[in-house]
Amino acid sequence: MTEYFSLSDCDVIGFDLDHTLCRYHLKETSRLIYESFTRYLVEHKDYDKDLLTLTPATWDFCFKGLVVDLEDGNLVKLAEDGTVLRATHGTNNLRTEEIIKHYGPKREWNHFNSLNTTFTRSTKYYFYDNYFDLPGALLCGRVVDMLRKRGSEVNSDFWKDMVAAIDHNYNTSAFKEDAGWYFPSVKRDPGRYLQPCSESVKTWLRSMKSAGKVLLLITSSHSDYCRLICDQILGKDWEELFDIIITNALKPGFFSLVPQQRPFRTLVNDVEESEGLPSLDKPGWYSQGNWPHLHQLLKTMTGNPEPKVVYFGDSMRSDMFPASMFGKWETVMIVEEMEGEGVPRSDAAETNEAQVEPQEKKGKFEDQGMKAPSAPSEQWGSYFVDTHKTPGGDEESQKLTWCCHSIHKYSTMAIPSVESIADLPLDYKFPRFSPNKPCTTGYYPRPPDSLLKKCQSQSS
């Protein structure tokens, strides 16, 4: 494998949609998602109305990469080796001695091997790795606080209600039926939540197509929501940009190689045909599906028996891990947390956000002091690196977080947004992640501050 990665070497360029091609106004969207989940619990499950009341400071708890331990209501931040770096019970910090009481002197989280090797869901824990469910981590912590206040036992029963709240708002028919609170709100005012793609991104997509690349869109969003997003961010002629569009892809299952693969289905007026397709024989818009059938079509379209595919995504569980492990694709991870650690936003992204976000609305949240979910947290620290104290508490070492380690292991490279590379030539050579290189290699346009500091302290 070469030290560098270039889009010009790829036959196929694929994209996830949400938080990859489509950037959301994270503060607005996070508030909506939190309220959508919470209103379900309050109105349908008789949870305390106090859960609906948030102060701006409360959002500091909202941090990507946390794992909730469903058996005891703890939320944990893990190091690359499964060590518990920080933990809370509900939203309350656990002291070092409390962490040791829960996880032993080595602070080992006992489900780490299962999560680290498969990324599959479990009845024992839940991994918060994308912005669509991230406000649920804050709600989860507050529900545990509520149960404690009531004197109720904290066990995994509360999680059934959380799952029901997610399903009520996000199930595939919710958009069409105006069910829940999330989809009706976005449909009413899409510009409040969705950031249009910059002209440079649209030009970049067209230039790749003109260069003979096959362009692919794979999203777990249903076709009706996908259309609303793309109309808003790319314009009404957006379908012309892509050769193949796959909605309701049900990732990561889309990439699994088990014999019971979900067949591709055609759509009529956003309704899936009941009969699945035995294979995929031409480009177009499809629903569900599986990677092996797509791979066969890509061979035909590119004339290459082993087409080289790169896939851009924002989720380790749904995008990076399965595309890299099963599809053997190159993967580019969108890591918005880089922008919270000194990595500059692209000029196009800055201009674009300024154009679409009215100043009075922008000021409202800045004045309130609400932390963007992608920014570092006072309570949880950096997404990439954290300090680990020895049991005696007298020695400190800097450890990569498990999320950061996973990015290096399953991604070819990491960028804060597609805007950050849209103005570069297609043959630009990006340094790729490599176990033989410093941990700062693989980030474009530059590594996050915490990783730079870690490397500097090791070399000094």
From TrEMBL:
Residues 341-383, 433-460 are annotated as: Disordered. Residues 358-369 have a biased composition (Basic and acidic residues). Gene3D superfamilies: HAD superfamily/HAD-like. Keywords: Acetylation, Hydrolase, Magnesium, Metal-binding. One of its GO terms (molecular function) is metal ion binding. InterPro entries: HAD-like_sf, HAD-SF_hydro_IG_5-nucl, HAD_sf. The gene is LOC110529517. This is 5'-nucleotidase domain-containing protein 1. Belongs to the 5'(3')-deoxyribonucleotidase family.
